[in-house]
Amino acid sequence: MSNSGNLNQNMFSMTSAKLHILAMGLMLCDHMWATLLPAQEWMNCVGRIAFPIFAFMAVEGYFHTHDLRRYILRLLICAVVSEIPFNMMTGENLLYPYHQNILWTLLLGLLLIAAAEKARTRGRIAWLAVSGAAVLLGYVIGYLTMVDYYGEGILTILVFYFFRERNWQCLLWQILCLYILHVELLGGYCYEFVLFGHEFTLVQQGLALLALIPIWLYRGEQGYHNKGFQLFCYAFYPLHITILVILRGILLA
To answer: Rounded distance, CA 62 to CA 107, Å?
Structure first.
């Protein structure tokens, strides 16, 4: 392959680092809309793309981590640290039990994947039984605990676990499952528009399906990585929410 061919391939391929940066940027847009720029609705729209990327990367992290317990412990610590800033952003109160931050969603999804993978060692029947239970349990727990994206969020993580292979069948299942979860079940705000004389409805949460584009440009490569970058990725969530909450308080004072 020529050098220009390699360059084009590198331009359009995604590494783990690129996916993390993209998801963090999209999430930042969404949270800026929620705190500082409520009139900029486009920021909320592009923010819909962030969560499926985080869900996909959580599954990839599960299969690539050298120490699953440390991986889960880091998520747990970060979820606890993030809860007060998240409460301040969503409920403007230190305690807000009606909505938990996204890291709890990721954590619960990973625990269900761990249970399914443990059952896999006992055979396919055991794996299927535990996987089915994980789907049901994940959906119910998501609503009982009121984590971000609720049960649909946990099931989004499981979708990327069940259909992790790089083939057209898994791509089609990802599209179908994400459509059911984010359009039919989560739903939400809709946009009405006319195209070529026909009326169409666009469900805002359906924009989450656009996350499949960068996800399928991922080739399993880690990309840029060191301890500092890893720490930044974990710290970004509570840190940027804290900064936005402080800025909102200053502007509203």
So the answer is: 11
* Segment 199-253, tens digit of pLDDT: 888 899 999 999 999 999 998 898 888 889 999 999 999 999 999 999 999 998 7
Closest CA to 81 of 53, 111, 106, 101: 101
Q: What is the 3-state secondary structure (H, E, C) of the chain?
A: CCHHHHHHHHHHCECHHHHHHHHHHHHHHHHHHHHCCCCCHHHHHHHCCHHHHHHHHHHHHHHHCCCHHHHHHHHHHHHHHHHHHHHHHHCCCCCCCCCECHHHHHHHHHHHHHHHHHHHCCCHHHHHHHHHHHHHHHHHHHHHHCECCHHHHHHHHHHHHHCCCCCHHHHHHHHHHHHHHHHHHCCCCEEEEEECCEEEEEEHHHHHHHHHHHHHCECCCCCCCCHHHHHHHHHHHHHHHHHHHHHHHHHHC
What are phi and psi for residue 229, nearest 5 degrees?
A: -65, -40
Instruction: Name every residue whose Cβ is closer than 8 Å to that of residue 171 and which is 6 or more positions away in sequence.
Output: 163, 212, 216
Q: What is the pTM assigned to this prediction?
A: 0.93
